[in-house]
From TrEMBL:
Keywords: Signal
The protein, known as: Outer membrane protein beta-barrel domain-containing protein
Source taxon at top rank: Bacteria
Signal peptide: 1-22
């Protein structure tokens, strides 16, 4: 559990440090997991997103993920503006608080696929994503994260 919170601290420090230099979006995600969501741009085509949330899937507990994203992989034109497809690869940690693995930390890669729409005024983005996760600790298991959310861009 101490390692889990150390990872959270490192993630937050890195995102805050980088936020002084790039576009940052902070908000909430609803689904599985449900909680806080943040994204910071690396350049015009790549970003890093993360979430600090509660997971109620295979492993219930505090959920943290950090994902490297390929933004604007495909753009769909609409009359209101473009909807952009993104995908990525990252890592997911869950501090399990229920069931057979209570007290353990589930760890493994995750691969999201999502859509995002950027409003111009207010400076908000709305997104939806589905992510395949492969937990390798405490046992090998496949899980699916699904969520929709909204983030305010700075």
């Amino acid at each position: 559990m101490k390692k889990f919170f150390a990872y959270i601290t490192v993630l937050l420090v890195l995102m805050i440090y980088h936020s002084a230099q790039a576009e940052v979006a902070v908000g909430a995600v609803l689904g599985d997991p449900t909680g806080l969501s943040a994204r910071t741009a690396i350049d015009g085509q790549h970003s890093v997103d993360g979430a600090l949330a509660y997971n109620s899937g295979t492993y219930s507990g505090l959920h943290l993920h950090l994902t490297y994203l390929r933004d604007r992989a495909r753009t769909f034109a609409t009359t209101e503006g473009p909807i952009e497809l993104y995908y990525g690869l990252g890592l997911r940690l869950i501090s399990v608080d229920k069931g057979k693995y209570d007290g353990d930390t589930a760890l493994g890669p995750r691969a999201p696929l999502g859509l995002v729409y950027h409003f111009k005024n207010p400076n908000v983005e709305v997104f939806g994503e589905i992510a395949l996760a492969l937990d390798v600790v405490p046992r090998t298991d496949v899980d699916l994260d699904v969520g929709v959310g909204v983030r305010l861009r700075f």
